[in-house]
Design a protein that fits this description.
It holds the Pfam family FTR1. The chain has 15 helices and no strands. It is mostly helical and 403 residues long. Helix 1 packs parallel to helix 8, helix 7 packs across helix 13 and helix 9 packs antiparallel against helix 13. It starts with a helix and ends in a 6-residue tail after the last helix.
Length: 403
């Protein structure tokens, strides 16, 4: 791989991370919440006067124009928890849903007060934290490891699959897809910074949601293909020979595109996370770069482990394990993708009180996210069983085809 190209993209990433046009506009998070509360109170005034559209627009101003634009959401995710950020985000959506349904004024006021109290509690918690070198380091490390882990798992699994199946020549397009995604992430982060604001902030959510849902389709397709090859190998030397002889151009494109989406999905978000961290770090700026470097080394370690294990694990369990991993990723992605569309006002929010958010698995307490995940889980299980049954019939397997 061209080292000069990789270095150029890395420097471009750093440049976009440092050139932030929107952060550091408030001395404290409390100051920001005070201003947000003013817009939320205006929303109540408009709603009480019968102006539902204007009231919802004011709630959007508080969300897109402050919570997202100034990195409040991302700071909560990195320094408190992803589940807490999801709780606050859903409260924004629930208040707007109540307004749309024409809920009684007291109910809407209660929802707005709850929203302000959640924001105030997070601001107090963040403002009360004394900046330390260790805290900055851990925040930086957590961002790159958490956001990069899914991408490195998918790219590593695809590369290991190609090497394991004797298609070393097809590895280069996957690397190229990952690098193109990194460059595209830089461009997307720059565009999202330009768009950040009350009027256009929801575009970011819609773009992220659409990207994730596209990734679900590609990952499901690729994982289904892998498990079919695993069974073919297990029961027929004929198919193994076909796989080792080379995979089709369409297959290479699918794998490279899956790698692209895995990196692109996380890339722009990582840049935006680091922008928030840089803007809110006053003393220990160097620890951000130390955390980033250590996190990158850890991700490389994960990649190496995948490569080593792929050589030691027999072909069939390796293919099956890789397929299951990608199935799980697709279920996580569909939850996160729909949540982004909820934040973009594209999909409604129907709470499920007895379910808690599990951010890392893309599980959120709404019917709109849980039902598609259940459907995808059932379909994935059915496909898996179907492929196993096909594998138990050597005659049918011998007639398999490459995609």
């Amino acid at each position: 791989m061209n080292k000069k190209l990789v270095s150029s993209i890395f420097m471009l990433v750093l440049a976009v991370m440092l050139v932030s046009p929107v952060f550091a506009a408030f001395e404290t998070w409390g100051d920001m919440v005070t201003e947000m509360a003013g817009h939320i109170d205006e929303a109540w005034t408009l709603y009480a006067a019968g102006n539902v559209k204007g009231a919802k627009a004011k709630v959007d101003t508080a969300y897109y124009g402050y919570y997202e634009k100034f990195g409040f959401e991302k700071t909560v995710m990195s320094q408190i928890s992803g589940a807490r950020a999801a709780e606050v985000e859903y409260q924004f959506s629930l208040v707007k849903k109540a307004m749309t349904a024409g809920a009684p004024g007291a109910e809407v006021r209660e929802g707005l007060d709850l929203l302000i109290s959640l924001l105030r509690a997070d601001a107090d918690r963040l403002d009360g934290k004394k900046e330390s070198a260790l805290a900055v380091f851990l925040s930086s490390l957590l961002i790159i490891v958490r956001e990069g882990f899914e991408a490195i798992l998918i790219v590593g699994a695809i590369i290991a699959y190609l090497l394991k199946s004797g298609n070393k020549n097809s590895v280069k397009p996957v690397y190229i897809g990952s690098l193109v995604a990194l460059a595209a992430s830089v461009l997307m982060a720059y565009i999202l910074n330009l768009l950040a604001g009350a009027a256009t902030g929801q575009n970011q959510e819609i773009i992220e949601g659409a990207t994730m849902l596209l990734a679900v389709v590609v990952l499901f397709y690729v994982s289904n293909w892998m498990v079919s090859k695993a069974e073919a190998e297990a029961w027929s030397g004929y198919i193994e020979g076909k796989v080792k002889a080379g995979i089709s151009k369409g297959s290479v494109f699918s794998l490279a595109f899956a790698a692209f989406l895995a990196v692109f999905r996380e890339g722009a978000e990582v840049i935006l996370f680091y922008q928030a961290l840089i803007a809110n770090t006053k003393t220990f700026m160097n620890m951000i770069w130390v955390g980033l470097a250590v996190g990158a080394v850890l991700l490389v370690g994960v990649y190496i482990v995948i490569r080593v294990l792929s050589l030691k694990i027999p072909l069939k369990p390796f293919f099956l394990g890789t397929s299951v991993l990608l199935f799980i990723m697709s279920i996580s992605f569909i939850g996160n993708g729909i949540k982004e569309l909820q934040e973009g006002n594209v999909v409604s929010v129907s709470p499920v009180p007895f379910v808690s958010s599990v951010d890392i698995l893309g599980i959120y307490p709404t019917l709109e996210t849980l039902i598609p995940q259940m459907i995808l889980l059932i379909v994935s299980a059915a496909v898996f069983v179907l492929q196993l049954k096909k594998g138990s019939n050597p005659g049918r397997s011998a007639q398999g085809k490459n995609i």
